[in-house]
């Protein structure tokens, strides 16, 4: 079984399309949230995901930007993100906003070997808010896993790829499809191949996409230029 992991698309249709070309034959797609925010193609991204959910095993949880746009919960956002949230609220269709509202905060998945996964955007302690960065001490990851009954925890939110193994259990972050922040501008995703033994059966991948088109759309939409410029740097 091939399981594709994606997260933090952030309304970047060009990046999503490039990643999808590489994962479209996966047996399951698991998304750790933030379909929208920052970018200029929110309706197109949400409609693509909605379509795929009807055709295959495609699970998705709600991220903090999804939540902010769906419910107006923009407190704590920086001025650039807040401006993008308000723009999204103006341009998104009623149907797509309702879809975001109905996304669960947590999802469960079990692969064909019986290994279980908890999908969440931030962490089980604060599903929409807490950042689990790779440089946190091992004791912190142990503490996080104490809240999880499943074998593995799948997260997003940091936009930084990560694999942490704690006593045979894993915390996996596939990085960001549409807004990488690890210094590599290319879209990020991960693949789990269940025919191989964990923990080494997860691979991280990067793919180039039409970043100039994604940036142009942001500028043409009247969104802050900063949101376009950062796409080129992966920061």
Structure description:
With 235 residues, the chain is of the alpha/beta class. The protein contains 8 helices and 10 strands. It has a 5-stranded mixed β-sheet with strand order 3-2-1-9-10. Strands 4-5-6-8-7 form a 5-stranded mixed β-sheet, covered by helices on one side. Helix 3 crosses helix 4 and helix 7 packs antiparallel against helix 8. The radius of gyration is 17 Å and the shape is globular. The mean pLDDT is 96.
Provide a brief overview of the structure:
The protein has helices at 13-23, 42-53, 64-71, 79-91, 94-102, 138-145, 211-220, 225-233; strands at residues 2-6, 28-31, 57-60, 106-110, 116-120, 152-154, 162-166, 169-173, 187-193, 202-207. By secondary structure, it is α/β, with parallel strands linked by helices.
Distance between the termini: 33 Å
SSE pattern, N- to C-terminal: EHEHEHHHEEHEEEEEHH
Q: DSSP helix count?
A: 8
Number of strands: 10
Largest sheet: 5 strands, mixed
Radius of gyration: 17 Å
* Helix proportion: 25-40%
Percentage of residues in strands: 15-25%
Rounded mean pLDDT is: 96
Q: Write out the strand line-up for the largest beta sheet, numbering strands in chain order.
A: 3-2-1-9-10
Stretches where pLDDT is under 50 for at least 5 consecutive residues are none
Morphology call: globular
Secondary structural class: alpha/beta
Task: Summarize the SSE layout with pairings.
Layout: E1 2-6, H1 13-23, E2 28-31, H2 42-53, E3 57-60, H3 64-71, H4 79-91, H5 94-102, E4 106-110, E5 116-120, H6 138-145, E6 152-154, E7 162-166, E8 169-173, E9 187-193, E10 202-207, H7 211-220, H8 225-233
């Amino acid at each position: 079984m091939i399981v594709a992991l994606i997260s933090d698309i952030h309304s970047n249709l060009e990046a999503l399309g490039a990643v999808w070309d590489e994962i479209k034959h996966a047996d399951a797609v698991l998304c750790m949230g933030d379909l929208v925010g920052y970018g200029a193609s929110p309706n197109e991204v949400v409609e693509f995901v909605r379509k795929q959910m009807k055709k295959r095993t495609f699970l998705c949880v709600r991220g903090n930007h999804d939540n902010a746009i769906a419910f107006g919960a923009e407190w704590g956002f920086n001025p650039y993100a807040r401006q993008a949230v308000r723009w999204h609220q103006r341009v998104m269709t009623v149907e797509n906003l309702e879809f975001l509202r109905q996304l669960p905060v947590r999802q469960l998945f079990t692969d064909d070997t019986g290994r279980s996964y908890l999908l969440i955007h931030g962490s089980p302690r604060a599903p929409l808010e807490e950042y689990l960065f790779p440089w946190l001490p091992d004791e912190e990851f142990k503490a996080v896993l104490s809240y999880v009954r499943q074998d593995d925890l799948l997260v997003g939110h940091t936009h930084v790829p990560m694999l942490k193994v704690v006593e045979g259990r894993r915390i996996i972050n596939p990085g960001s499809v549409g807004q990488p922040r690890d210094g590599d501008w290319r879209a990020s995703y991960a693949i789990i191949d269940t025919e191989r033994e964990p923990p080494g059966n997860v691979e991280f991948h990067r793919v180039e996409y039409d970043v100039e088109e994604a940036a142009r759309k942001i500028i043409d939409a009247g969104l802050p230029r900063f949101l376009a410029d950062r796409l080129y740097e992966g920061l």
